[in-house]
Automatic annotation (TrEMBL):
PANTHER family: PROTEIN VES (PTHR37943). It comes from the Bacteria. InterPro entries: RmlC-like_jellyroll, RmlC_Cupin_sf, Uncharacterised_HutD/Ves. Pfam families: HutD. This is HutD protein. Gene3D superfamilies: Jelly Rolls (2.60.120.10).
């Protein structure tokens, strides 16, 4: 288990230079944008425009703050993504652009290298005590809002708990909005 505090997240420019991203976690440690196996980050989007293209990468976006955006992903119907929407998975190498609905947004971005890793993202509301069931591999619990105790560790807004070799239930208590991210290596590489 590793606690990743919001104050320690790494800030870096977008691949296309159009903004800034806050990297929560990456594997392997220290990997760059061209050689990561998986990556979890947040980005503030202040203007309409194209997304960075990541060949061979699958991504899932969720809206953390703001009214949301309309996403135009090549080969798909336009998608409206808001804080109430389910996390949206799509290929990061499909040309994609976004139009903001009403001002700046912050998104949560999960990316995995296709063919080597898969991932899933789900929102979890906690009000009291519950259990989370990581799927094995690597799991990350990101605290979006509020405060939660996860596996006896305290998480505040934008803190993250990284669980390696997950698969066992984790005790959670408090009042918070969380994201559970499960990343699994494909058996064949």
């Amino acid at each position: 288990m590793k606690l990743l505090r919001a104050s320690d997240h790494k800030r870096m420019p977008w691949k296309n230079g159009g903004g800034e991203t806050v990297e929560i976690a990456v594997s392997p440690d220290g990997a760059g944008l061209a050689d990561f196996d998986w990556r979890v980050s947040m980005a503030t989007v202040a203007t309409d425009g194209p997304f960075s293209v990541f060949p061979g990468i699958d991504r899932t976006l969720s809206i953390l703050d703001g009214e949301g955006m309309a996403l135009f992903i090549e080969g798909r119907e336009p998608e409206r993504l808001t804080q109430a929407s389910e996390p949206l998975p799509f290929a990061a190498d499909a040309p994609t652009s976004a139009t903001l609905i009403d001002g700046t947004i912050t998104d949560l971005n999960v990316m995995t290298r296709r063919g080597r890793f898969t991932h899933s993202v789900r929102r979890v509301s906690v009000d009291g005590a519950t259990k989370l069931s990581p799927r094995g591999g690597v799991s990350l619990i990101v605290c979006h809002r509020g405060h939660a105790e996860v596996a006896r560790l305290s998480l505040s807004a934008l803190d993250c708990l990284l669980l390696e070799a997950g698969g066992q239930e984790v005790d959670v208590s408090g009042k918070a909005e969380l994201f559970q991210i499960d990343i699994q290596a494909n058996r064949r590489r």
